[in-house]
Amino acid sequence: MGLFGTDGVRGLANVELSPLTALKLGTTSAHVLIERKQNTKVLVGRDPRISGDILESALVAGICSQGVDAVLLGVIPTPGVAYLTATKGASLGVVISASHNPVKDNGIKFFGPDGHKLDDAVEASIEEQIDNFDSFPRPSGADVGNVRHRHEVVWSYAKHVKSTANAPLTGLKVVIDGANGAASEIAPAIFHELGAKTCCLNCSPNGININDGSGSQHPQQMALLVKQTGADVGMSFDGDADRVILSDENGVIVDGDHIMAIYALDCARNGGLPTGKVIGTVMSNIGLELALKKEGLSLVRAAVGDRYVSDEMRKTGAIVGGEKSGHIILSRHTTTGDGMVTALQILSIMIRTGKKLSQLAGEMEEFPQLLVNVKVAERDGWDSKPGIIAAIKDAERRLGDRGRIVVRPSGTEKLIRVMAEGPNEDEVELLVGNICDAVKCAMG
Question: Which residue from 26, 97, 115, 255 lies 20 to 30 Å from 54 (Cα-Cα)?
Fold first, then answer.
């Protein structure tokens, strides 16, 4: 497996993802820009986790050592870096974040000048040259890169987010779970300025509490607060705010599959879903597929990972795609997943239709689905283990055409993900358990 996973470079901060690795990435990415004659400036943003400071310092040192300017945006959601890269004339956008992962991890991911994830060919060029980073020519004197701190431009991104709302949010009461991450400052401000009454949760980052029992991975606390306070809707972002999981007024979780169904069905009924396609992944619930099919729409399944969803969207012309995890791409408004934009679109539909979120989400019936993550020493080679293959084939035989089995390695962590879906919850649990046992036996 190469240096880049499905969402940049990730690892245990200061160990697997060390300052030296960040220095190499900064130096090599800037060198590749120069080779491609795109060496204007690089935007660098980060989430508030404590290891971000040391990685940012090393990364920026590498960028500037090649004579390329670095603009430090400070703590900002990942989609904010993507938006500003595309609108401020930057050659590259870099985000230091491990997204929904715990504080011990960190990551570095790149956006191209169009605001989309960096092209595979550019990533490949960085990978090919990174071990030679110390041999690149270096400018000196006044020709080294300049560092500028421009956190205030985050509010330019905030203005863009607000502009995607189709109606004021006056009269709505919302709970905002910031995951003690990058949305903790900006999200409450945006929703308040649009007229909503806000109740904030986990919006006090201290560098070590990011995603700790909070955010899109742990939305139960948010959902309970929605019910206790009589709020209309709740939203839980992840650490870098490119995901969102919602709660309806009854405290029932509304995940990414339901969000895509609500948005796509509304667009289709108003004549605004070109191609009639929605891009999901192999993990998308079959209930989404059936809900779309009732309206003459189709679900196209991409590999897991937002870059694969984005690629399929551009290939097919679809305007909505995403994952059950709440990473939703709405190409009319964004080039990557944006939790705040996604939440605003659903709130706008609620206001325009006069329907509660529970009514909108009820149009999709979710099939029982269980996903279990199995920790492994190494994630490569799982598909050549006889015991794992036998367990998967047995589960597929038992389910037949009544459901699905998906087993895959994580693109960012040392995990094998085992998912089963079918009409009977007990059967799904049994089949997943059998496969997990086989994975643990072969690779644990």
Answer: 115
